[in-house]
Amino acid sequence: MKKVYETKIKTLPGTNYSEIYPSAWSLYKKIASRTKRRPYVRSAFFSREKIFLDYFWSHIRQKNLRDRTRRLRFYACALDLICNSRIAPISSKETNKSSEIFHRFSGITKEKQEFHVHIKVDVSRNEKHFISVFPE
Predict the structure, then answer these.
(1) How many CA atoms lie within 13 A of 50 on its CB side?
(2) Which of 38, 53, 128, 132 is the most exposed place for a label (fewest CB within 10 A)?
(3) Element (H, E) at 118
(4) What's the angle, vertex CA 55, arms to CA 114 and CA 76, rounded to 5?
(5) E strands of 12-112, at which residues?
(6) Are 78 and 113 a contacting pair, CB within 8 Å?
(7) Is 7 within 8 Å of 109 (Cβ atoms)?
(8) Cα 88 from Cα 94, distance rounded (Å)
(9) DSSP class of residue 88?
């Protein structure tokens, strides 16, 4: 049995994109208001290092509306997992770029829905970016 982080946060309420997006964006803006530069959260697993959040929004805009809605529903749970999880992820190196490592964290929401979070590590610049969240 694999270990997964159990978040105490529920998924964002709503049935369509126009209901879920404002609450997800307000969470992001709340975090972004704490810094004048790039928004970030600190990760428990990576020894309180910064995980930048800006790549997620450019990634989500490439998806269709149905997929955006499906992924944004787990945004609050993903932030909780990034900040508090100490459970080791599944890691893999990018075959094309040797300077990138992808980490896949697994979690369960309060409603017992499983989801995954992708974090990309740029080894050459020592930066970590929250890329994506999606349900099982």
Answers:
(1) 13
(2) 38
(3) strand 114-122
(4) 35
(5) 40-43, 49-52, 90-93, 100-108
(6) no
(7) yes
(8) 18
(9) -
pLDDT tens, residue by residue, 2-36: 788 999 999 999 989 999 999 999 999 999 999 89
Q: Kindly state the tokens that stand for 106.
A: 């697994």
Residue 79: exposure state from Cβ atoms within 10 A (0-12, 13-18, ≥19): buried
CB atoms closer than 10 angstroms to residue 18: 10
**Which of 82, 91, 73 shows the shortest CA–CA distance to 136?**
73
Neighbours of 63 (CB within 10 A): 15
Structure tokens at 81: 């997992």
The residues pairing with 128 across neighbouring beta strands, listed in sequence order, are: 51, 121
Nearest C-alpha neighbor of 77 from the set 42, 106, 44: 106
Task: Please state, in angstroms and rounded to a whole number, the distance separating the CA atoms of residues 105 and 127.
Answer: 17
Give the Cα-Cα-Cα angle 35, 135, 119 (nearest 5 degrees). 40
Model confidence pLDDT, tens digit, residues 64-101: 999 999 999 999 999 999 999 999 888 888 667 778 88
What residues are paired with 121 via a beta bridge? Answer: 101, 128
What is the reported pTM? 0.89
